[in-house]
Amino acid sequence: LHALLTSTGGAQRMPRARHDAALAMLRDFVTANEDPRVSPNYKDDRPDQMDGLFTLMSAPECAADEDLALHALKALKILSRKQENRQSFGRRGLNAVLRLLVAPPSSRVAGEGANVILNVCYEKENVDAILMCGGLEPLVRFLGERTDPDLQANAAGAIQSICFQEKGRARVRDLDGVPAMLRLLGECRGNVKVQTRAIGAIHNMSSDADSIRLIRAQEGIPLVVALLKSDQPVICGSAAGALQNVSREVASRRLIRHSGAIPLLGHLLVCGDMQA
Description:
Blueprint: H1 2-6, H2 16-33, H3 40-43, H4 51-58, H5 60-64, H6 66-79, H7 83-87, H8 90-102, H9 107-120, H10 124-132, H11 136-142, H12 149-162, H13 166-174, H14 177-187, H15 192-205, H16 209-217, H17 221-226, H18 233-246, H19 250-258, H20 261-269
C-alpha cells in the first residue's frame, strides 16, 4: 500500500488504474482493521509508513472523490491509534487532513476527518499545530450541523481531545465553542454518542476558571446536572467530573445545589456500576 501510494505522483493527476487499486487496498485495510479489538495493525506495535497516505490525500482527485477521501481518512484514523504514528504525524499529515476537513466533499468525510483529529490530538504537539493551522474552526462549525448527529458527535470528540490542553481550551472559548457545546447538550437528548462526546468536552473545558465562569454564564450548570440522571455510566461520570470542577467557584456551587445535584450525586455514590 505504501509503495503504491507513494507512486501516485503527489499533486499530479493519478492514473485511473492506480486510483482503483489504491481504493481497493484502502477498503481491504479498513475492513481488516476497523475494529481495534481484532485489528492486526493495532496489535503490531511497529510504526507505520504514512507518507504515501499523505501524498494520496494531497492529490486533487482525493478531495473530489468522496469514497477515496473517506477510506483514506478511515485508514489514517486506524493508524493514528498508535502513539508512534501520532508522534510522527507532523505538519504534513495534519495539513493533509485539514485539507479535507475545511472543504469536505461530504459530511461523512468531515466526520472521519474529525475522528482523525480526535486521535492525533492525544499528542500535545499536534494540538499546537492544529490550532496554528486553523483546524479548530471547522470543528466548532460542525457542532451546529443539526441534521447530522454523527458529525456533531465526531466534532465534539475532536474538540474534547483538543481542549485537554490549556491552549486548546483558550481557543475553544475564543471561537464561542462553549455556548455551541452547551446548545448541543440541550438539543441531543436521547443520542448517547453525542451526549458522551459533548459532556466529555465540557468536562475538559471546566478545568480552568475562565471556562467555569462561561459555563455558568451560559446557563450550562442545569444541563450538566440533568445528565446525572443518565443510565450511561460514562455520561454520569463526565457530568459529575464537570460539576466537581465547576464547584470551585462559589457562585457556581450555589447553582449546583439549587439545580438539585446533591441527591443525584448521592445516588451515584451508591451505584456500583457508576464511574462518577
